[in-house]
Amino acid sequence: MQYCQKGNDVILKDAKCFDVALSLDCGQAFRWHEASDGVWHGVAFSTPLTLSRHGDEIIFYDTTIKDFEAIWFDYFDLGRNYEPICDRFGQDENLRCAVEKYYGIRILKQEPWEALCSFIISQNNNIPRIKGIIERLCQGFGDDLGNGDFSFPSAKRLSVLAVDDLAPLRAGFRAKYIIDAARKVTDLQVDLKKICNEDIDSARADLKQIKGVGDKVAECTLLYGFNRVEAFPVDVWVRRIMQTMYPQGLPPCTAGVEGIAQQYLFHYIRNKK
DNA sequence: AGCCAGGGTCTGC
DNA sequence: GCAGACCATGGC
Question: What average pLDDT score do residues A59-85 get?
Fold first, then answer.
């Protein structure tokens, strides 16, 4: 991946297997929206960003090489070559169709705390409402970054709140889970930095100490917050996929990158007819 | 009105 | 270890 500064923007040249809209709106992140046709805006790592594709290039507006390298390169998983992975998925008929239709989905590497908190909110919930709750969480407790943008509130900020303080979110029974997570992350009972370097089973067990974090939320946190692409979240949609398409288990071509396969299949099945 | 949503906890066996 | 009730909220 080649990139350069051009005026106030950073240009990513010859961007392969990177569909901005698909990657930002396939149910893995909840804070991006299409500001105008093909132009996406959101906030990650307390930093607002607008981006869009023009031909073979992706333009990261009003940013610097410094921020691009410090934040966006990893956020968009640009160090990983998705082409051979997608090629290999072609060995399986269902995955071949999913990749053909939705080529360019990348697994975002979000802030671990944001991913954890977001997928706690996601439980027994639907994507539009998840987005609404997270938006109210950020507007209510995040830092005002100007221009209508807010940071995702830190665990520390939320750790001092009472459950009732989250009532305006209308998160329902999930509010107490958010507070429990914020407190355990803040006092390092669940150490997100340590989890970065742990084997995946220890990481799963650590995360599941938090109330409201079971298999699914732990798996999503590891996949979308830690870039553990071998993590495989199973929600109601993926459960249907496994029952109907893979009763014997996932095909060998997904080995080691099950989470990427999961994202293609999830988006494929959700948008089918 | 009833069912579902990127689930998890708690109780009872 | 497993089944079932229950959990808040909102869209369809």
Answer: 98
A 10 A CB-CB count for A57 gives: 15
3-class SS of residue A204 = helix
| Average pLDDT over all residues of chain A | 97
Give me the pLDDT at residue A111, please: 98
Q: Which of residues 85-114 of A touch strand B (CB under 7 A)?
A: none
pTM of this structure: 0.97
pLDDT at A1: 83
Number of continuous H segments (helices) and E segments (strands) in chain A: 14, 8
Instruction: Judge if the beta carbon of A124 is closer than 7 A to nucleic acid strand C.
Output: yes
Q: Which residues pair with A42 in a beta bridge?
A: A49
> Widest CA span of chain A, in angstroms?
53
Phi, psi for residue A219 in degrees, rounded to 5: -65, -45
A44 touches strand B (CB under 7 A): no
Q: Is the dihedral of CA A119, A113, A18, A150 positive or negative?
A: positive
Q: Where are the beta strands (DSSP E) in A69-156?
A: 144-146, 149-150
The catalytic residue positions of A are 216
Å between CA of A125 and C1' of C9 = 9
**Cβ of A27 near strand C (distance < 7 A):** no
Q: Name the nearest CA neighbour of A186 among A83, A93, A117.
A: A117
